[in-house]
Write a structure and sequence with these properties.
Layout (H helix, E strand, L loop, with lengths): L6 E7 L6 H9 L6 E8 L5 H11 L3 E6 L4 H11 L4 E4 L5 E2 L3 H12 L3 E3 L3 E4 L4 E3 L7 E3 H9 L10 E4 H7 L11 H9 L5 E4 L5 E5 L10 H18 L5 H21 L6 H14 L9 H12 L1 H15 L7
Parallel strand pairs: 1-2, 1-4, 2-3, 6-11, 7-12
Antiparallel strand pairs: 4-10, 5-12, 6-10, 7-8, 9-11
Length: about 325
Amino acid sequence: MTDSKSVSIVIPVYNASEYLSETVESFLRQTYDNWEMILVNDGSTDDSLDIIKKYSAQDSRIRYIDKQNEGISKTKEAGLRIATGDYLLFFDNDDIIYPEALSTLVNIAEANDADIVATPFYLWYEDGHREKSKRLDFDVITGAGYLNMLFCDKAHWPLWANFMKMELVRMADVDFNFRLGIGEDMVTLAQIIRSDSKVVSCPVPLIDYRMRAKSESHKISRQFYNDYRECLAISDRLLAPTEIYWHVNKSIEKAYIQRCLYGIFWGFDDTVEEDLKSARKILFRHPSAWKMLDKEMKKIVRQYLICPRKAIDTAHAIARQNAGKEYNM
């Protein structure tokens, strides 16, 4: 296949000078040539802008935007605004894409007339070892089916793991007016997918996702937990008026029950009673949500249904025991 279809790569950049060159160089090694890169500097205070300007001067396919700090969602919006490609790939400023990736993704998309190509990847740890992401258990699926899989943690939310037709993204008219520490990709992707979208899976990993120990997106904090719940609530609110909502609202509630109960096991004592009440309400509406809970979660909920006060005391004890521990996502 010729490189007739163009690909826009939008990379938000914030204080990424340590890894940014590796990321850009991985695109310069692509076997597919018809792409543009838009590097959006979100008010970095390190040398990121100098690196951006260097690559922009070296390769005419690379453009940049320099703006004040507004957060990753508004930064992606700024890049999307000037993107001109037939396809769109958002990408992180510290990850690596394999040389044959763009060629593979365009070929799959064109051969299947796909709106989205869902891509597995490798978790790339600081000690050098790689771990393959969860298997995508489909070849072709509707947008409604894919969104259900995403809310049930059976597929991958990151935008960089979802290669999209630009037309699909433009039609969505995405609302980027939210600021979260984590979960922005959930809110964005949930708005883009339509019930009749055609989603095709890529059979091989094409990206190294860098697992940095210092990364706030991998650590559990109170802000992380709040955002972890809030991104689901925002997605629910934005999807409620749309045609796809009635295909996925049960999956959203099932996902919410997990997020309620994670707080107990992550050591957040102050929301225990609220979380258990929410879990009970969801289970009464959707008994099948029980299957999404692990053994310890089921034990607490079962006890709450029989003796709420005892379950609350048990949950408080678990939360206090786990308080201050470090968890990595």
